[in-house]
């Protein structure tokens, strides 16, 4: 089992309302929530916060645990634990793993996300925040 963790990263502004982050990974040419594999001895929550920082440059305040997503990568099962996390600062810089970051409305994030599982996580975020 490949174990990973990530966050549905968000912020709210008076002018734009709720915005959700999606990252573009050129290796897979997909739009998804920031996530990555756990390091040896690392907790899932620590990995989720680390992955947000590495992939988006953002500092975040994790909150409610969201659903765990399970799927196959090739023939290996993968389990990704997610949290909702408010962005509280930072700055994005493109890197070899992630070349773009978008802040979208929930509807736009649902439409842009490549995988259905990432759309489902946007819905889970909305349930938590409402």
Task: Briefly characterize the structure.
With 130 residues, the protein is an alpha+beta fold. The chain has one domain: Nucleoside Triphosphate Pyrophosphohydrolase, CATH 3.90.79.
Keywords:
Nucleoside Triphosphate Pyrophosphohydrolase; 7-stranded mixed β-sheet; 130 residues; alpha+beta; single chain; 3 helices
How many domains make up the 3D coordinates? Answer: 1
Quaternary assembly: single chain
Tell me the number of helical segments per DSSP (H or I, 4 or more residues long): 3
Radius of gyration of CA atoms, rounded to a whole number? 14 Å
Describe this structure in words.
This protein is an alpha+beta fold and 130 residues long. It has a single domain (2-129), classed as Nucleoside Triphosphate Pyrophosphohydrolase (Alpha-Beta Complex), CATH 3.90.79.10. The protein is 26% helix and 48% strand. The protein contains 3 helices and 7 strands. The chain has helices at 44-56, 106-112, 116-129, and strands spanning 2-13, 17-25, 30-32, 35-37, 58-73, 76-90, 100-104. Strands 1, 2, 3, 4, 5, 6 and 7 form a 7-stranded mixed β-sheet that branches. Strand 2 (17-25) and strand 3 form a beta hairpin. Helix 2 runs antiparallel to helix 3. The longest helix is centred in the last third of the chain and has 14 residues, at 116-129. It starts with a strand and ends with a helix.
């Amino acid at each position: 089992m490949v174990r990973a963790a990530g966050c549905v990263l968000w912020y709210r502004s008076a002018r734009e309302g709720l915005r959700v982050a999606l990252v573009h990974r050129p290796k897979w040419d997909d739009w998804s929530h920031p996530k990555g594999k756990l390091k040896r001895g690392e907790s899932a929550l620590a990995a989720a916060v680390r992955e947000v920082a590495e992939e988006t440059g953002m500092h975040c305040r994790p909150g409610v645990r969201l659903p765990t997503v399970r799927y196959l990568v090739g023939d290996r099962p993968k389990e990704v634990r997610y949290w909702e996390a408010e962005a509280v600062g930072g700055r994005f810089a493109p890197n070899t793993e992630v070349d773009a970051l978008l802040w979208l409305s929930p509807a736009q994030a649902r439409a842009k996300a490549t995988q259905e599982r990432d759309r489902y996580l946007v819905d889970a975020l909305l349930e938590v925040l409402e």
